[in-house]
Amino acid sequence: MHTKNKVMSFPYRANVALPDKFPVQGTFDLSVVIPAKDEAGNLPELYASLTTVLEGTGLRYEIIFVDDGSIDETSYEIEKIQMRDKRVRGIELRANFGQTPALAAGIDAAQGNIVVLLDADLQNDPRDIPFLIEKLNEGYDVVSGWRKDRKDKMVTRRIPSVIANFLIARLANTPIHDLGCALKAYRREILDEINLYGDMHRYLPIYARMHGARIAEIIVNHHPRRFGKSKYGLSRIFKVIIDVITIQFFSKFITKPMRMFGSLGLGLLAIGGGGLTYLVFIKVVYLASIGGRPLLVFSVLFILAGLQLIGLGVLCEVLSRNYFESQGRKTYSIRRTMPQP
Ligand code: UDP
Ligand code: MG
Prior knowledge:
Layout: E1 28-36, H1 43-57, E2 61-67, H2 74-84, E3 88-92, H3 99-109, E4 112-117, H4 129-136, E5 142-146, H5 154-172, E6 184-187, H6 188-192, H7 204-210, E7 215-219, H8 236-253, H9 257-286, H10 294-326
Parallel strand pairs: 1-2, 1-4, 2-3, 5-7
Antiparallel strand pairs: 4-6, 5-6
Helix pairs in contact: 5-8, 9-10
The structure holds uridine-5'-diphosphate and magnesium ion.
Uridine-5'-diphosphate binds near residues 35, 96, 99, 119 and 182.
């Protein structure tokens, strides 16, 4: 079915063109990146409170709004703000790509040494930003907000979130209470090393940690949503479970997939091989009939599956090398090279 591209139909678009390339104004101390999908009702207030807070810090900052294919007046609101304030930049995506790509677009455009990510829905409190930065300056690469007193629905949001966070933090060995909190501060270099896929924004601290980032957490304010709707429902829980598997794979095996697939495959081969050996033994020694034994089916299945897994391991090994080498990625990350005295 052909669906009409909703993004094209703006009756209220302001009559100004965004510049193709943003002028490079030198680096900033701070870039605040805000993805927005249908958040028109929130933007004016968000901008106002953000500006008050950021001006108070005395930092050179920029605010980057990314309109992620909104079908309300979001892009118009961003344009209005941008025309008033040079420190604000607007990016309009062609369609709704999702929160992670929207964030990636903003991060790519950001020039600040510190990048703060923030939701557009006023659930996060801009007044927490100076505290995040203060913590970052204690020598951390990532400071994550923790919505200890979260203002969302209990059953559909808070309980699943607590369980998921607990599991993920354990599995990924990243001691963070609230990955889902959008308000986080990053040092630029850490973000430069990470490419964002899928719904990865939620696990950014974990990926950062794989790159050796120092991570801290501070408690932040949280408010209920007043305008607009949440973009996620309960289906997020299943996605999170699958994401956890991906993270596990990435954190442990991306540089050596054969270790995982190969050892699993070998294990299956050994079990299947053992079963077959036993069957051959009783066939030869006791002249037993083995054709109808379930063990035969299982042994053959195990051997086949084992061979498949080993093959998959070899394939992944090739892919992994391709992944690193074709993109000039490193399997390590340097914090600093020590200067000669
Ligand atoms: N968002 C986006 N693109 C999307 C979905 C969400 O840019 O496809 C933005 C949204 O406008 C908000 C942030 O991501 O600024 C978080 O979304 P939401 O508040 O709906 O998530 P929740 O807080 O309910 O987890
Ligand atoms: Mg929200």
